[in-house]
Design a protein that fits this description.
Length: 436
C-alpha cells in the first residue's frame, strides 16, 4: 500500500531538539550481505539498518536458496551453502540498483549469474558497461539478450575459475569496486583495480574479508590489489556495520536548519569532514567528539549564514548523496551559492519542486545550479523522486510555512529507517498516512 508523509512546517523557526542515533550504513551492509556468498560457513552481520534495500537484497539471496535468518533486532545470519540457482528474481532486481553487487561473489563462487538490467533510483544513465567489461577481463563470458521488455545478462565462467586481471575503471564507482573486489577474492591469481573508489565502506568490508582469509591490500586508496584464494571462513567472526555517513550528514543539515540543539551520536565525524567544513564556512557552529556531532544555536535566522560553493566528488570529497539536502540548506542562507554535480547527470532534476516552494534557484545546465537566499519556502504537495531528494523534500517541508505532503516515500524508506518516528522524537510534526 502506498504511503505519504504529512509535515507541518516550522516556518523558519529552529525549535527541534534532542538526540538522534545513527544506524548502520546502507552502503556497507549491502556489500557485506553479498559477501556471504564467498563463505563456506554462516556469516553474521550486526548493526543492520531496518531499511527497504536490506529487505530487497534479502529476497534476492533467498531466491538463490541462501538461508537468511534474523538473529536479533539488528542482526542477521546468512548461510550460502544451500545455493540452488544463480538467476536473479527479476521483479526484485529491477527495483534495486545495488542488486548488481551480488554478481561478483555469485560468479566467483558458483560460476554463473543471470540478471536483468538493475533498477532503483532514477539518476540519469547508470551504465553497467563498467561491470561487463571488468567481468570479461576476469575471464567471464557475457551474453546479453532480450526477453520481452527486459534486457537479460548471462555471465558464465568459461574456465574452472575466474582469473586475475589488471582492471582500470574508466569512472570511479563504489559498487563496481566492491563487486570486482569480491569477485577477485576467489579468482585465480592477482587482480589489480585501478581508479578504485576510496569510500570507508570499501575499507570496512575489505578489512573483514582479510580477517576471514582474503588477501586484499590498498582498500581505501585508488589502487586495490587482491590475491585470489579459496572459499572464506568466518571462524566465528562477526561483521559490524559501520555508521551511515550519509544519514549522519542528512541529520546534520536538518539540525542546522530546524533545531536549536541537536546531538548526533554513534557516528564517525571524519567521514563527513567535507560537509562539516562547508557548514562551518557558512557560519554553522558544530562541535564534535570521537563518535558524536552537536549543533547548539540560538534562534537567530539562518540568513546570518553566508553562501558557499559545492562541488560533488568521490570520497573524501563532498558526497553526491548529500547534494540535495545541501541545496535546501543553501536556499536559507544569505547570498549566492553554486552547486556543481559531477557524479550523476540527472541528480538536480528535483530543484524544480524547490522553486515551486519559493526557492530562488537557477539551473544553468543539468549539472549546475545557482541558489540565491534566503528564501521563504511555502508548503506544497511533493513526490519523492529518489532516496536523497526525498529526504531533501522532508527538510524543505520542515523549513517551510504550512503543511506539505510527500508521496512516494518508499524511496525514503529505502535509505532511512523509521524517519518520521525519529523526527517526532525531536519535536517535528510529521506523520505517515496510508493512501487508499
Amino acid at each position: 500500500m502506498k504511503e505519504r508523509f504529512v509535515i507541518e512546517g516550522l516556518g523558519g523557526e529552529k525549535t527541534l531538539s534532542g538526540t538522534v542515533s545513527i544506524h548502520g550504513a546502507k552502503n556497507a551492509v549491502l556489500p557485506a550481505m553479498a559477501s556471504a556468498l564467498l563463505f563456506k560457513d554462516t556469516l553474521t552481520i550486526e548493526n543492520i539498518p531496518g531499511i527497504e534495500d536490506v529487505k530487497r537484497l534479502t529476497e534476492l539471496l533467498e531466491g538463490f536458496g541462501v538461508v537468511v535468518a534474523e538473529k536479533s533486532n539488528r542482526s542477521l545470519t546468512i548461510d550460502a551453502a544451500t545455493v540452488t540457482k544463480t538467476e536473479f528474481d527479476r521483479a526484485v532486481a529491477k527495483r534495486l540498483r545495488a542488486s548488481i553487487i551480488l554478481t561478483g561473489p555469485l560468479l566467483a563462487r558458483y560460476g554463473s549469474a543471470t540478471f536483468p538490467y538493475p533498477g532503483g533510483c532514477v539518476l540519469g544513465q547508470r551504465s553497467i558497461d563498467l561491470f561487463l567489461q571488468s567481468f570479461r577481463a576476469l575471464g567471464a563470458e557475457v551474453k546479453e539478450e532480450k526477453d520481452g521488455e527486459d534486457d537479460i545478462f548471462r555471465l558464465n565462467v568459461t574456465d574452472k575459475k575466474l582469473h586475475g586481471a589488471d582492471i582500470f575503471f574508466s569512472q570511479v564507482s563504489v559498487t563496481a569496486t566492491e563487486t570486482m573486489m569480491m569477485a577477485a577474492v576467489l579468482a585465480e591469481g592477482t587482480t589489480t583495480l585501478r581508479n578504485a573508489a576510496m569510500e570507508p565502506e570499501i575499507g570496512s568490508i575489505a578489512e573483514f574479508l582479510n580477517a576471514c582469509g582474503a588477501h586484499i591490500t590498498g582498500a581505501g586508496t585508488s589502487i586495490i590489489t587482491i590475491e585470489g584464494g579459496e572459499v572464506l571462513s568466518t571462524g566465528g567472526r562477526v561483521y559490524h556495520t559501520l555508521p551511515d555517513r550519509i544519514e549522519t550528514g542528512s541529520f546534520l543539515i536538518l539540525g542546522a536548519l530546524t533545531a536549536r540543539e541537536l546531538t548526533i551520536e554513534g557516528c564517525v565525524p571524519e567521514h563527513v569532514d567535507a560537509l562539516i567544513n562547508l557548514l562551518q564556512l557558512s557560519g554553522v557552529s558544530i562541535s564534535r567528539g570521537k563518535d558524536f556531532l552537536k549543533i547548539v544555536q540560538n534562534t537567530k535566522p539562518s540568513s546570518e549564514w553566508k553562501g558557499v560553493n559545492v562541488k560533488t566528488h568521490e570520497y573524501p570529497g563532498f558526497a553526491t548523496d548529500l547534494q540535495a539536502p545541501m541545496v535546501v540548506f543553501l536556499t536559507q542562507v544569505m547570498g549566492e551559492s553554486t552547486v556543481f554535480e559531477t557524479i550523476f547527470e540527472a541528480r538536480l532534476n528535483y530543484v524544480e519542486d524547490l522553486v515551486k516552494m519559493g526557492a530562488n534557484i537557477t539551473m544553468w545546465n543539468p549539472n549546475k545550479v545557482s541558489i540565491k537566499g534566503p528564501s521563504l519556502l511555502k508548503d506544497r504537495e511533493l513526490e519523492g523522486p529518489d532516496i536523497r531528494a526525498g529526504l531533501a523534500y522532508v527538510i524543505a517541508a520542515l523549513v517551510a510555512r504550512g503543511t506539505s505532503t510527500i508521496d512516494n516515500i518508499y524511496y525514503i524508506d529505502r535509505g532511512y529507517e523509521r524517519l518520521e518516528e525519529r523526527l517526532q522524537q525531536l519535536g517535528a510534526n510529521i506523520r505517515r498516512e496510508k493512501l487508499s
